[in-house]
């Protein structure tokens, strides 16, 4: 697939052919949905937790003797029917939401989303992305000259580039990610994909093994 290539000034400097094994995969929305749901489940943090009668503090002593008091028999003041007792059937941290998806399926879903971005002209290829000093203004000036200037964009870096990351982190519609860490949740969360040319090689080396 041929796509336009831009420089940092926003000028179209030609076309480049992207690898068809990554950017020419046929759409399969069911697979994308399945992988996206699994990734959201794996990112889920279990916060809600209620204590059962075994976890609540106190209640080690029987409140009164079994017989002869005229009152109902009880073994602990931390029973769920007592005020301050344990909670019955409440949410606990032992819940497991993790879903396992085969690596081949995750990679294919990633390629499907990348292919859709390229097909719909939502992939912006740069010859290079070089920021000498970590300044938000420098990154904002680059974005103003590109087609993604008014939309959310995900920048895919070939390696850890400190100046680029620091320049982009204060822009609300922008996020940086390393090519080796690409995933479909981040791709689906941003309309445009901003990729320097050297990141394509890293994607091939990481996901086409």
Walk me through the structure:
This protein is of the alpha/beta class. The protein folds into two domains: 2-44 and 99-207, 3-Layer(aba) Sandwich (Ribosomal Protein L4, Chain: A), CATH 3.40.1370.10; 47-96, no CATH class. Helices cover 33% and strands 14% of the residues. It has helices at residues 20-23, 29-43, 103-119, 136-144, 162-168, 184-189, 197-207, and strands spanning 2-6, 12-17, 123-126, 153-157, 174-178, 192-196. It has a six-stranded mixed sheet with strand order 2-1-3-6-4-5. A hairpin with a 5-residue loop joins strand 1 (2-6) and strand 2 (12-17). Helix 4 (136-144) packs across helix 5. It is elongated, with a radius of gyration of 27 Å.
Quick structural overview:
The protein is α/β, with parallel strands linked by helices and 209 residues long. The protein has helices at residues 20-23, 29-43, 103-119, 136-144, 162-168, 184-189, 197-207; strands at residues 2-6, 12-17, 123-126, 153-157, 174-178, 192-196. It starts with a strand and ends with a helix.
Give a quick set of tags describing it.
2 domains, alpha/beta, 209 residues, 33% helix, Ribosomal Protein L4, Chain: A, 7 helices
């Amino acid at each position: 697939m041929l796509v336009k290539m831009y420089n940092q000034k926003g000028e179209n400097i030609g076309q480049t052919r992207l690898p068809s094994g990554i950017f020419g995969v046929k759409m399969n929305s069911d697979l994308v949905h399945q992988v996206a749901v699994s990734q959201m489940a794996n990112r889920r943090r279990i916060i809600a937790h209620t204590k059962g009668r075994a976890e609540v503090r106190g209640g080690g002593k029987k409140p009164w003797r079994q017989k002869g008091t005229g009152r109902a028999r009880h073994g602990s003041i931390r029973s769920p029917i007592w005020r301050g007792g344990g909670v019955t059937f409440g949410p606990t941290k032992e819940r497991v939401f993790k879903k396992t998806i085969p690596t081949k399926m995750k990679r294919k879903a990633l390629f499907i989303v990348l292919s859709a971005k390229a097909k719909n002209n939502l992939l912006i290829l740069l010859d290079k992305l070089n920021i000498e000093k970590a300044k938000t203004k420098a990154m904002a000036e680059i974005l103003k000259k590109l087609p993604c200037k008014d939309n959310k964009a995900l920048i895919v870096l070939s390696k850890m580039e400190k100046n680029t990351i620091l320049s982009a982190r204060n822009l609300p519609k922008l996020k940086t990610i390393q090519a080796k860490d690409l995933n479909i949740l981040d791709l689906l969360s941003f309309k445009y994909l901003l990729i320097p040319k050297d990141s394509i090689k890293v994607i091939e080396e990481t996901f086409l093994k």
